[in-house]
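S1.2 Input.
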Amino acid sequence: MTAKHIDLRVKKIYFEENIMNEVKVNIFSIVGQKDCTLPEDGDKVHKTIQKILKEDKKASISFLNVQKLTTAFLNNAIGKLYGEFDETKIKNSLSVQDLSDSGKARFKRVTTNAKNYFKNPDKMKESIKEILGEDDE
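S1.3 Output.
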């Protein structure tokens, strides 16, 4: 067997393992409708993705047939993951498909806010209280 044949066999094995370790997450199927606006629906998606990541698999998230998408939904579905998993793990384990341009902007905003929040939640809570003019009393 030549080095070229061995290389092709190694690539084939690697590719098959990646396919087996990636789970397609169809948001429309989980939520059951085209509007992804409710935090409660985001919780359903979160549980699915959380389980996949805990099993050290990759999640390919499809927003096919989703027409409305809110940050409230995304905060619960995706944002909470940053409080449970390392940022690098999330980056390496999640991929997103079939998302509109406005959906991509919301997704980016939610992930950026979640990263900042979970890096220092006490500081963020204090900043929010300060902005809202709330006291500790």
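S1.4 Remarks. Residues 60 and 95 are 5 Å apart (CA to CA).
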